[in-house]
Amino acid sequence: MAFSAHSTALLEAKRRSGLSFAELGARLGQDEVWVASLLYGQASTAADQAEALLDALQLPQAERP
């Protein structure tokens, strides 16, 4: 199964961060299933939640989708 470039970048950032979907969900105030569907491109979110996710993943500005 091929993922979009955005999903691939986000999943790689998640792997590097060492955070689980549950840990990311706790930081965002969301369920882990929602976080997983967001990273896999099956859900969308508001700009502020997206920014919070990128911050939690410590993704540098230059690498942000």
What does this molecule look like?
The chain is built from 4 helices and no strands. With 65 residues, the chain is an all-alpha fold. It has one domain: Orthogonal Bundle (434 Repressor (Amino-terminal Domain)). The chain is globular, with a radius of gyration of 11 Å.
SSE string, helix = H, strand = E?
HHHH
Q: Unreliable stretches, pLDDT < 50, 5 or more residues?
A: none
Q: What is the name of the CATH topology?
A: 434 Repressor (Amino-terminal Domain)
Average residue-wise pLDDT: 92
Name of the level-1 CATH class: Mainly Alpha
Taken as a percent bin, the fraction of beta residues is: under 5%
Overall radius of gyration? 11 Å
What is the count of DSSP helices, taking H or I runs of 4+ residues? 4
Structure classification = mainly alpha
Give helix % range: 55-70%
Q: Determine the CATH superfamily.
A: lambda repressor-like DNA-binding domains
User: Number of DSSP strands?
Assistant: 0
- For the record, the CATH architecture stands as Orthogonal Bundle
Distance from first to last alpha carbon: 20 Å
Largest sheet: none
Instruction: Return the domain count.
Output: 1
Shape: globular
